[in-house]
User: Fold this.
Amino acid sequence: MTVRSRATLGASAVVALALALASLALLGLLDANLLHNAESDAQAQADAVAQLAEQGHLDRLLPPTHGADFLQVVDEHGQVLTASQNLAGRPAISNHRPTSPGTVFSTWNISPLGSDHRQRVVQVTSATPQGLVTVYAGTSLRDADAADDTTAAALAVGVPLLLLTVGLVTWWVTGRALRPVEAIRAEVAEISDRDLHRRVPVPQTHDEIARLAATMNATLDRLESSGIRQRQFIADASHELRSPITVLRTQLEVALAVRDRELWPELISGALEDTARLQQLAADLLLLARIDASEPVPDGRLDLTALVRKAVASRRGDRVPVRAELASGIEVAGSGLWLTRLVTNLLDNAQRFAHERIQVSLTVDGPDRRTAVLEVVDDGPGIPAADRERVFERFTRLDDARSRDHGGAGLGLAIARDLAAHHGGTLTAEDSPRGARFVARLPVA
Assistant:
């Protein structure tokens, strides 16, 4: 069943149950009220006749009275002492002989008057000088029966009509409410991997469906951005791979054509350099793929201070010496291999452009000292403020870094930022009096 059908069925079922209970309550209250009124009138007449019997003032024929259809007075032996005109000459209407004074209420379906309506009979037993006397006063329930029948007929017609109205209104309202959802579904069904620029309609209702449409459009924005990024990445990767593969093939073809063995070492050395560049590029692409796949980060604690110190110590043979000022005992949660790669990529970038100095510092910052701050500063040409975000894009080289003699394919800083984000941190290029300054912030374990 559709949501529309379930909503209509549920609303109709609830209303039907409520109407059934209300109808039963209405009929019960109406019948009880009419019965009480008839009973009160009959009892008043029976009490009045009982008082006359106690005083010995009974007439041979009781006059008709308001509130009672018939009256009959019977002694304790079952002898009829007097009665109303419509019961004159008839025997006692009940064979039961009370043994003590009191009042009894009962309803008889068969009236002694031959009426088809029920009779509410009040039986009042009183003590007189001649013994116990029982007065029977009965009133017809024709008004109550008529009212019950009329009410039941009205409910039999009105309840189904009301249920039908509720069902139709619910079906219509639910259809209107779900119409934007169907429009969203239809639009999403038409969107393919080549139509990620399309968006679903957002209704002007500012309700849950409007928020759903806005969220769907935000998801499509992310998918489109991811698709564009993926296509750009594939194009850049293809371009970066094509150049070393072309050079490598040329070198191998030249080596195959040259017969002078003295030239082979030089040709093979160049081929090995391009092979190493291809191997490094393939490793970087594999690491980016693992990061993009959101491979979970280990939650084990590691000493970030010792990790940075070891990474710096391994660079002692570099062109520019690295100075380090590291706070002790800083621990973070994550992968030691990936965090080492983050530090290494920052140091590699600094080595490419530094003139004489590279400074590495590690401190703890933040209001609760819950953030580890790693800074790598060099004295190179620096990064223009307009390019401080662009340097983190994949395969990006600034003008001063376009020469392949500097090495790298433009993935180092992109990988470093992705690794920092994967560990719940950030990596930014910030202001520096001279050169470039990269700041990585990671949450302390």
